[in-house]
Amino acid sequence: MSNTFPRVDGVLTVGGVPVDRLAARVGGTPFFAYDRDLLSGRVAEVRAALPAEISLSYAVKANPMPAVLHHMSAEVDGFDVASAGELQLALDTTMPADRISFAGPGKTTDELVQAVAAGVTVELESITELARVRDVSERLGIRARVALRVNPDFSVRGAGMTLGGGAQQFGIDAEQVPAVLAQLGDLDFYGFHVFAGSQNLRADSICEAQRATVDLVLRLAEVAPAPVRYVNLGGGFGIPYSARDTALDLAPIGENLAKLADTSLRQLPDARVVIELGRYLVGEAGVYVTRVVDRKHSRGTTFLVVDGGLHHQLAASGNFGQKIRRNYPLATATSESTVETVTVVGCLCTPLDLLGDKVELARAEVGDLIAIFQAGAYGLTASPTAFLGHPPPREVLVGGKAHSLGENKCRR
């Protein structure tokens, strides 16, 4: 992580700002810091790898911080939201409503009212949701635009989390889609969304899933009530969280998508084809910074007790979907002294609050700062902030120059 977040005079920097200065600037620790230039750089890398005809959408759930969303609205071609709260945040940016999609099971009627009134695409997850959207559409006098989220009849090898294949709460089973399409009535049919798995570091697996997804969409398009104008191929691009992980190679994915665009996808000439990424765009652009408040020894183990913990960064504790707990990358942010083996724990009164188990760090004393990397996605909003009543952390977006709200240079 040293190249991503370089040090100046031995102190880690984010967006060119030393973390100790950031701590003073935001009012203390713990805090999350996101690097604006790293966000833009990652989007540029993805765009360079993907064929020009593929649109890039950002999954807001990965990091819905308003400043991040405002920045990303000028970088990507669309947003995907999963709640009315995320929808409102997305609508507050410069992203046009017709480039926002609303996915997720269990949308309430009130949420559907907001979505239809805003003019975003509602991605239907069930036949019941279809009926409620139709009712809302009639009540508002607005022809709702809908896409079907499809639970595919295949699963993805190598995915850290499976979201498709088998029985799922996500989407409509592929074999049920024709019957649902027949009941759309006057709704404005837009297309399909197929997302089968996330946190995948295997390019061959992602390519295989994309090919299977395109084949599935082509079959479903044959029974669609109107031409398909939207195909969301999902994403699932993973990032490395430990030394044993190998970073995803984008090149074969881009080559695979280019072949699909030149062959199979030509059968859908009206379709805007979308790759939807969350973690991959923002995950490596953030750090969680926390301060050592105690240094203690217990039966051969040196513990660094910090003022943060799993209530802010649940994933780093291993309690957010990890089958086998592995340490996130950590560093002593304000010291480069002799390396020692320590265990980093949070301030919560539970043994679950483990941030780094037997990790090698530069020696840290009380008052030093510890940085946990890969914290740009599924950090604060994926953590139980109310647990044990500690105050919430701060968040800050730093580095680079913010885009003018009136300027949008990305492809539309």
Short note summarizing the structure:
By secondary structure, the protein is of the alpha/beta class.
Tell me what you see in this structure.
This protein is α/β, with parallel strands linked by helices. The chain has two domains: 142 residues, Lyase, Ornithine Decarboxylase, Chain A, domain 1; 182 residues, Alpha-Beta Barrel (TIM Barrel). Helix content is 25%, strand content 26%. The strands form four sheets. Strands 4, 16, 17, 18, 19, 20, 21 and 22 form an eight-stranded mixed β-sheet that branches. The chain has an eight-stranded parallel barrel with strand order 5-6-7-8-9-12-14-15, surrounded by four helices. A three-stranded antiparallel β-sheet has the order 1-2-3. The chain starts with 6 loop residues before the first strand and ends in a 14-residue tail after the last strand. The C terminus is likely disordered.
Unreliably modeled segments: 402-412
CATH topology of the largest domain: TIM Barrel
- Specify the CATH architecture of the largest domain: Alpha-Beta Barrel
**How many structural domains does the protein architecture include?**
2
Number of helices: 10
How confident is the prediction overall: mean pLDDT? 92
Going by helix content, strand content and strand pairing, the class is alpha/beta
Quick one: how many beta strands? 22
The CATH H-level homologous superfamily of the largest domain: Alanine racemase
Termini distance? Answer: 33 Å
Characterize the largest beta sheet: strand count, sense, and whether it forms a barrel: 8 strands, mixed
| Helix content class | 25-40%
CATH class bucket of the largest domain? Alpha Beta
Proportion in β-strands? 25-35%
Shape: elongated
Keywords: Lyase, Pyridoxal phosphate
Cofactor: pyridoxal 5'-phosphate
Pfam families: Orn_Arg_deC_N
Protein name: Diaminopimelate decarboxylase
